[in-house]
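Hi Y.,

Following your request, here is the sequence exactly as I used it, all 200 residues.
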Amino acid sequence: MLFRSCAFLGDLIETLFCRVTSGVWMSRSSVIYGAFSIVWGIGAVLLTVVLQRFSGKEDRYVFFAGAMLGGAYEYLCSVFTEVFFGTTFWDYSWMPFNIGGRTNLLYCIFWGLLSVVWVKICYPAISGWIEKLPILWAKVATWALIVLMACDALLSAAVMVRYVERKAGKEAQTVAEAFLDAHYSDGLVEKVWPNMEIQE
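Below is the corresponding structure, written out as tokens. Let me know if you'd prefer a different format.
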């Protein structure tokens, strides 16, 4: 439930951020169906699990732990998409104090601030709300969301891989590849993931 909620909120935050800073409405979703950012969802769960041990400490401890964890997480997410999909979704090489263009000091500071707000304010409120849900209903809903999100993520990965293959000039060899070509065109992929760049 936490993953799904934060995946949606993360997508919303990035969409609004792009609108305010760039003046355009841009899809920030990680998946083909729905406005969900897997990076934000996993990041929220990771921050929650790791930083709960700092919840009783002063804000500075949460800030520094969150800044380091968030920066490392962002870096690894960038490496993951490049290695497994041959794509990149962000490049901070033009920003000062960046690490391989994958993360930078400014965004690490943002991660630290977000961690303080999350651990001290947001998570306790959201956790309290989740705990009030009827146990049986919550379990059924959680498993339904897990199945739906897993299917969406797997389909999205297949669509992304096939898109990269098409761009490389590879013709469809299987029924599954032909299906992806017929239903998930380059235009659709580029609309869902407008910042995606294929690695040479």
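Strands lie at 87-88, 98-99, 103-104, 197-198.

Thanks again,
Q.
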